[in-house]
Target: Sulfur carrier protein ThiS
Amino acid sequence: MISINVNNAIHQVAEDTSLAAVVTKLSPVQNGIAVAINNTVITKAKWNNTKVSNNDNILIIQATQGG
Model:
């Protein structure tokens, strides 16, 4: 198991876990979100092939409407 920090909360995940698996587990909404690992935005097309690493800082942001 490795430790990752997602939106300032520590989570334990298995080694070789994809970013897509993390987002699926921790975000109730899959559309209209942006995800960054260690301050680098990862496009949705790359989530399945991007593996998280020990001590990664992951930020999941939900887009909102407003004016």
